[in-house]
């Protein structure tokens, strides 16, 4: 029940694979993207992830002409998508910086040409965003690369997840429980889905992609057995953009990684024993020996 991504193994009792989701929080600025990579590396994350779109394909028809207020003025939603999309030279710079900092990097392709774009850059894996889980053509294109696939399951029914896995196969998929509310309230977290997915799909590592405020829910997911944790990151939650408010700032990501490792240590191996630290209290406090 493991999947290899880059130089790391996900599942099988290994430490949780922490994905720092840059997404569109670079706001179209490659230097901002590189600063976020530094945040992820400094915090001890394993990977950074972006989003790649061909705006003319990935933008829903009903959204194309909707006005959008942006830092660059009022523009259509389609033009906004074009404005924040990074080109190949920017991705090469980002990839080099991520590798220099010791991180895996990959992205969520939102359309078939974006799969080819990312393959040309040598990504170690592909991420299927929750919104794309029902896009069979995209799933087939990602499957045909032979790369590991991280599949988020927000806004999806069990039947839709079943169909996605029928298309992708299960031998190199990491499944992420997710709720696609930004930001997500605790009553929508539904973390008991994590062990349910693990039981439903034996052999598929199951993790968690979170959009909540704070750290508690992500840490609880690890305690429930999540083998990967993905969280959006930002330099400042008050920055302009749709995902910043549901993201972790640098100190938050650092604390998340630290606390995940503490939780993993605390889980132990499930074998009840008397620990060395208990021997002095045992000698002092137990009146009736066994």
From TrEMBL:
UniProt-listed InterPro entries: Aldolase_TIM (IPR013785), PseI-like (IPR051690), PseI/NeuA/B-like_N (IPR013132)
GO molecular function, one term: N-acylneuraminate-9-phosphate synthase activity
Alphabetized Pfam families for the sequence: NeuB (PF03102)
GO biological process: carbohydrate biosynthetic process
Every PseI/NeuA/B-like domain range: 36-272
Name assigned to this protein: N-acetylneuraminate synthase family protein
Gene source species: Microbacterium betulae
């Amino acid at each position: 029940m493991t999947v290899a991504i880059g130089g790391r193994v996900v599942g099988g009792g290994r430490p949780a694979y922490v994905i720092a989701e840059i997404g569109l929080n670079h706001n179209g600025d490659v230097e901002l993207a590189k600063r976020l990579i530094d945040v992820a590396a400094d915090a001890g994350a394993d990977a950074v992830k972006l989003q790649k779109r061909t705006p003319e394909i990935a933008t829903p028809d009903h959204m194309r002409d909707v006005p959008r207020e942006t830092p660059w003025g009022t523009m259509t939603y389609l033009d906004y998508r074009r404005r924040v999309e990074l080109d190949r030279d920017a991705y090469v710079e980002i990839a080099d910086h991520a590798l220099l900092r010791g991180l895996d990097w990959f992205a969520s392709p939102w359309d078939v040409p974006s799969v080819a774009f990312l393959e040309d850059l040598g990504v170690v894996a592909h991420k299927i965003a929750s919104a794309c889980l029902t896009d069979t053509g995209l799933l087939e294109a990602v499957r045909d690369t032979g790369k590991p696939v991280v599949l988020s399951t927000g806004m999806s029914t069990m039947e839709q997840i079943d169909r996605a896995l029928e298309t992708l196969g299960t031998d190199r998929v990491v499944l992420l429980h997710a709720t696609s509310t930004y930001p997500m309230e605790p009553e929508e977290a539904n973390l008991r889905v994590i062990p349910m997915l693990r039981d439903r799909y034996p052999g598929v590592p199951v993790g968690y992609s979170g959009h909540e405020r704070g750290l508690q829910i992500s840490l609880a997911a690890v305690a429930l057995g999540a083998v990967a944790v993905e969280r959006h990151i930002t330099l400042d939650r008050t920055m302009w953009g749709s995902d910043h408010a549901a993201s972790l700032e640098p100190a938050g990501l650092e604390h998340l990684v630290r606390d995940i490792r503490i939780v993993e240590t605390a889980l132990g191996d499930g074998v009840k024993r008397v620990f060395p630290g208990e021997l002095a209290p045992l000698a002092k406090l137990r009146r009736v020996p066994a």
